[in-house]
Amino acid sequence: MAIGRPSSSSSQTPDPGAARRTSRARGIPEATVARLPLYLRALTALSERSVPTVSSEELAAAAGVNSAKLRKDFSYLGSYGTRGVGYDVEYLVYQISRELGLTQDWPVVIVGIGNLGHALANYGGFASRGFRVAALLDADPNVVGTAAAGLPVRHMDELEAIVAAQHVSIGVITTPPGAAQQVCDRLVEAGVTSILNFAPTVLTVPDGVDVRKVDLSIELQILAFHEQRKAGDEPAAGDSVLDRAPGPVRAAAAKLRRAAGGGKAAEQAKSAPTGKGPEDDLSAVMPA
Amino acid sequence: MAIGRPSSSSSQTPDPGAARRTSRARGIPEATVARLPLYLRALTALSERSVPTVSSEELAAAAGVNSAKLRKDFSYLGSYGTRGVGYDVEYLVYQISRELGLTQDWPVVIVGIGNLGHALANYGGFASRGFRVAALLDADPNVVGTAAAGLPVRHMDELEAIVAAQHVSIGVITTPPGAAQQVCDRLVEAGVTSILNFAPTVLTVPDGVDVRKVDLSIELQILAFHEQRKAGDEPAAGDSVLDRAPGPVRAAAAKLRRAAGGGKAAEQAKSAPTGKGPEDDLSAVMPA
DNA sequence: CCATCTTTGTGCACACGTTCACAAACGCAT
DNA sequence: ATGCGTTTGTGAACGTGTGCACAAAGATGG
Ligand SMILES: NC(=O)c1ccc[n+]([C@@H]2O[C@H](COP(=O)([O-])OP(=O)(O)OC[C@H]3O[C@@H](n4cnc5c(N)ncnc54)[C@H](O)[C@@H]3O)[C@@H](O)[C@H]2O)c1
Ligand SMILES: NC(=O)c1ccc[n+]([C@@H]2O[C@H](COP(=O)([O-])OP(=O)(O)OC[C@H]3O[C@@H](n4cnc5c(N)ncnc54)[C@H](O)[C@@H]3O)[C@@H](O)[C@H]2O)c1
User: Fold this and answer.
1) pTM surpassing 0.85?
2) Which among B11, B255, B275 has CB closest to A4?
3) Chain-chain contact of A62 with B285 (C-beta, under 8 angstroms)
């Protein structure tokens, strides 16, 4: 089995119209863009083995996709293959790198140097594709001044100056969710136009700013959904059979639920056993 | 602006047919499943504020999606709203939790307790939705025996026993990419049927096993692509104008490239400035 | 009990993404 | 030069996802 869409990691846009305008500007579908890094990784591995050419079939296998899809993806970039032979590995590495904008390097700031921020700062794969950590930033005076991965942690006060001086256009947010929107606003104000958000919050940004998010908890929940299905465990029909009924029956049930307060305690306990730990999920509140 | 598809974080399936079979079994589209955790988060926040009901418009705003989409998503679960009023918050929290399988708890093992593994072990949001860390595992004798987030790091030898004893069905891989496939195979062999992979590798698994991946590097590359577009920086037409030409001209160019060895050194240097650090990307090699 | 107002649930049209399948293009051997 | 085997590039069909727009359902006030 294999679940989910083959598309890239989450973005948080509710507006595919914008996506179209952005990436179809000269014709590369968003789904294709999301796969280019995958191809690039496979190609880089081939390049290191000095493999000169590769067929769509081989490369597709290495990247974990369908070969027809791969060929169509490449067709959006131009005709870089040779019929009867395949693709020139080095040339394709270059073309994809160029298309993704990896022929220049991108300074990045990481804001919130806690557990996750430290891990990211230490991550080698960062630099490997032209992403340079321009600065690590935190608001906590106890953290500021310490070093992570050889870089000093700077205070948030310096954010604007750093972004301006180093022309930083990408920011990574690894603060608690409660601080994420505020940090985001400040990054945007300072001139950052792309944000990668690890905090479980919906960020609001002005037009012209891109946000992508990575959310571990969501991934696990999706896995749990499919896991439950596998167990043949139909989601426990429970007390809700009457909700499948049409008309007045359902309405009555709804009324009852509201009147009774929904049985919050019992259901809440079941749905979120809140083990321990400082639960920091409480900031994804309604903006309006 | 807002880029990308509103879909969930990355899966790595090349086979949407499987997704359909799995999730449309009783009719919930994969795209909807991926949004349910988002709704749940927003609803939980409302619940904590003791808000009794919420309209699709309000909830959609809180979750960062379109209200029509939200209503359609909920319609796959059944008719849980009340026209003229909205949705009962507590009740909806319960229904979504149930649908996602969060009314039971899911023991999880984390394999590879390095930078990232530590961060995940410390992550509070883990337990908050019924995911319990059953064990932390590592192969390095220096790491085994140390504690992370109050839990002891166990040796890989114990994997099978732990998975069996605690009925673990979800595994998280945070090892270097070179070890990921091997660890994955062992997890699957031991009985794990859902895997969340943080290593930048394409994992091959048998039918019946779900894999989702989280890849920071891919996210950054997608952001870079759009960032480049914003800069009006058309991907530097460079030397490839002749590749847009049809017919024999292109063929000749291809031949030349292959003969010349593709100019590996120069282009490689541009495309991957390989700052420093132990580059661990070198395992995404061709499986075939 | 009726009128009015709000909000859901969904039919429909369209956009996007995937896959099939095949003609055209190319390398290579003869 | 010609023919043969291989592989690309893409037109077309299909499936999935999105968003509009509106009828129907219910709440509420008189
Ligand atoms: N740890 C994980 O594995 C993990 C996994 C998924 C998501 N997350 C999310 O990532 C975020 C960070 O997680 P963590 O475990 O590293 O948390 P953490 O508490 O260890 O680190 C947060 C850091 O942000 C800093 N900070 C707080 N407010 C700030 C502000 N206004 N400006 C700048 N810095 C500020 C804090 O000083 C702290 O150093 C959280 O939102 C968490 O939900 C973490
Ligand atoms: N650090 C990050 O922020 C980050 C971000 C994105 C992706 N990643 C990826 O996550 C993975 C882990 O990154 P990291 O920075 O924590 O690396 P790390 O080197 O700090 O930790 C890896 C751990 O895995 C253990 N390990 C190695 N081989 C193993 C095996 N066969 N079985 C069990 N354990 C084994 C090692 O002992 C080590 O403790 C890597 O694949 C990396 O590319 C890391």
Assistant:
1) yes
2) B11
3) yes
